[in-house]
Design a protein that fits this description.
Layout lengths: L1 H34 L4 H4 L13 H9 L2 H32 L3 H15 L4 H10 L6 H24 L4 H9 L4 H9 L4 H17 L2 H6 L23 H21 L1 H13 L2
Helix pairs in contact: 1-12, 3-12, 4-5, 4-7, 4-10, 5-7, 7-10, 8-9, 10-12, 10-13
Amino acid sequence: MKRQSKEKFTKLICTAVMVIVSLTIIIPLLIMILGSVKNPAEAQQFRLSLPTQWHFDNYAYVVKEGGIARAFWNSTMITVAVTVIVLISGSLCAFIISRKQTKFTAFVYNLFLLGMVCPIQIVTTFGLLKALNLTGTFIGVICVEAAMLLPWTIFTLTGFIKNVPRELDEAAFIDGATPVRMFFVVVLPLLKPIMATVLVTTAMGAWNEFMVPLYFFNTSSKWTMPLTVYNFFGQYSSNWNYVFADLVLTALPITILYLACQKYIVEGATAGAVKG
């Protein structure tokens, strides 16, 4: 009886902690959503309350005056390019690292792990882009964001590929397959669960990236969705109802992607944990 009571008490404490943690996320989210349909005075109060009058026209104003259409195209182009680069190069690099156990591959793997904990150095990165004549360009921002997201991708895929039997590689070579064909035809289809996870997390990271476009774009015409909030900040006042509406529109596409692929994210994480 004492053991059962102790287990119930532990579950109750864990549940209470999770509820509190959830509220720290849900309450600001509700304030943002409700604030997006309030008038400026009510939105500036940051209260969790219903608006006296629903101003859905805030969204129409944000789309018209905030350059959302152009920013949406910029974010989509950058996100798609970064995701494709990270998935292809990350999976190939992880395959080589997991299959060739040498000092060089171990060094490369540790180098990428270092990239997971070291923050980006803005000054040196800007100097490198300037030397390559890529400052203020989409290619420069895409390369920087891909480099930032590659370490986690390689770390995740390497652990998963190590559980793929090497006998499949040998069988493909016996059948006359080249290393490239063996990877894309034999190994890559087995990585679908974890690749779905990497796809969503990479797309979320690229879409929500704020600092890199802010520092490395020299014109507002290239701004991404997260940067459009600056259109509604003034020197002496801020239109928080428009800021909230802009944030909702910014978060909506990537939220839809996450909800659509949530099942595959869980499957990929679970497969990586129990495979082998």
